[in-house]
Amino acid sequence: MTIDVPSTADEAPLSELRVLELSTGIAASYCGKLFADAGADVVKLEPPSGDPLRRWTASRTALLDGENSALFDFLNTGKRSVLGELRDPAGMALAERADVVIVDEGASPTLDGLSALHDRIPRTTIVSITPFGLTGPYPQQGVRATEFVLQALCGSIASRGLPEEPPLQAGGRIGEWISGCYGAVAAAAAVHGRHGSGHGTLVDLSMYESMVTTMGGLSAVAADVLGPRHATPGRSIELPSIEPTADGFVGFCTITAQQFGDFLAMIDRADLLDDPHLARAPSRMKRRAEFTAIVTEWTTRHTTAEIIELAEAMRIPVAPLGRPDRIESIDHFVAREVFVENPAGFRQPRVPYRIGDFRGVPLTPAPQLGEDTIDWPARPIVVRGSRPPSDRRRPLRGLRVLDLTAFWAGPSATLLLGSLGADVVKIEGVRRPDAMRYSGAMPPSHQRWWETSSIFLASNSNKRGLSLELSKKEAQELALRLAAQCDVVIENFSPRVLANLGLEWDALHAANPRAVVVRMPAFGLDGPWRDRVGFAQTMEQASGMAWLTGPADGPPLIPRGPCDPIAGLHAAFATLAALAHREHTGSGALVESTMVEAALNVAAEAIVEHTAYGTTLMRDGNRGPVAVPQGVYRCHGDDEWIAMAVTSDDEWLALCSAIERPDLARDPMLAAETDRRAAHDRIDEAILRWSGGRSPADAVASLRDSGIAAGRVTGGADLFEDAQLISRGFFEHVKHPVAGEIRMPGLPFQIVGETRAWVSQVAPTIGEHNHDILVGLLGLSEDSLDELAKAGVIGTRPAGL
Hints:
Helices cover about 35% and strands about 15% of the residues. It has about 800 residues and is α/β, with parallel strands linked by helices. Among the domains are: about 240-330, formyl-coa transferase, domain 3 (2-Layer Sandwich); about 390-600 and about 755-790, Rossmann fold. Strands 3-2-1-4-5-6-24 form a 7-stranded mixed sheet, sandwiched between helices. Strand 7 (about 240-245) and strand 8 (about 250) form a beta hairpin. Helix 21 crosses helix 23 (about 595-600). The mean pLDDT is about 95.
């Protein structure tokens, strides 16, 4: 099946944008790539030694002199390279004429330094991406962190793995890619806001806060909303999830009772439906050996293709396991031509969205070091309004978004738009509200229990709530009237649903030719998987993220959740790019932002290295290519662990001193990193002997005092006590009419010079703003509202409850 994508002008949506990038890691480089993919002129300002990623390979493949790494070529296709620094006259000239400047930890940014720079170039947006942000006790104390250590701090590692084994990281440095996405959305929104005020913005982005938001912090919100006894109970794995088959692996996702029941029926064990202990995931974990044996006995008698065909017919979320040496051949990716040729000669995932017929600028080679000489001409900033500088925290004010999304992926996109100032109107059905309301909520005995889901509350701040039963003709007509007054319509239904509701592109475009219509299908609007059910777990299985997560001698594990906000972040960026395109064309566009292709881009390193070097990256527990030794180490106490990563020879010597093992420092067989990697087991034993008699706080303090990246493996519920998050006001105190006084995460960045608070309005109750929207915005009468309620078109509680 193919889809007729409405045509737009040939010009790339961000072709008029200039971006100056100073990057030494994935986060800032991916931030710049998102702009380059959308047509911006992105210039890398590099020192004579160049971006360190030029020589980086996760597989430790030897590169020829002058050869770029495949990861560098993937992240930097279409960019240009200039030698210099910001303090140089040439570098400053570029910064003065750039629309966006991106810097990371390698530029040693400080709040004072960047504030002074912003004072000098006030019309430019500056985005700083650092481990903890520019303020707070951790940067003030010089605390070091790698992505692995940040995973431990943010609550991600603590929840993953078997209870009797060490907690496990999510493979692939997902947090760095996520942070780059947040930086791109913040910068694109600031550029949009500049058209109203003429002022740029200084964005202070924290990787730690980005990872709390997407990889570990929701369990803290759950504990706050539902009470401590509802906190996530330690480590666990999904059952079922990735299971062996007769010819490989297959991935399942059974997050609803219906899906789990259908799964049991599929494996010919419907009799287990009568076992109440298997119905709930926590008690299922206690019987995992029994349950796993039952599942494996069935799956290993069938091929992956046979299982997928059967599961698809039963609407059970399913996917083959994406692995670097096979992922290109997956039928859906082949049919949609997801993987394309990089000019350097390897394969990579394409841009994960399209705007009309725009699918990213043509790929051109990544630049050689300093090959360009650039003199951007001066140009005026076009100001189209009179928005004061005080609105820099809400640069999307004046936009209206019609939100038809549900679960986590779609709402995370509209959460960003609403937090940045857009008026977001969230539509929910009366018979079928956003199903996330029923996940992790209070028991049905609780009054209005459907208003207490922690993940719903955390994902729907800064929105107005309208109940509208779109299965009814009257509701469809009202939705079209609303669309006529909106700049953006965004949805993440299954592809076939909009047509059934009379809200396809043609109808929406006829109602409002200037509207940007954003569709967020799991697998795309065409292709053999078009109508499959897909959740974040499915994307992690299919994209290769799970392949890199888990013990070296065990099965793959899913990272557990980040694909939802990853999809939302890419959709939000695509929305802002489409709005920029509208500024030039005057017309809206259909945007397809595909969940699985967003995940493939974040997981790209494995496929890039395989097709470039023929190497297959493998999961390796808590070890990784960035640091050695790297791992989690048990401390004194009840299931207490610390995480640590050593990234240089000097840090190795400092570690030997900190753990009181000078003999290891003197050992010539451990002098080189390659030698230490080979002796990792021996080194781990020495660290464990040292850490086992110490509290996590004492062990972390000693390591940090020695200049080593270290942190406690923190459970999500403990994040409220973290000094850095407290100092930066990350969790905001709000009052919900049902859940009461609770703490909600804001955005993972600050706008320097503005107040921190992002949550101006708590998540709406069902139909909370029916009157405001239908009477105040659409002009309906009070009598009409009563008639709609009687007809079941609108309501203030789910039908039947």
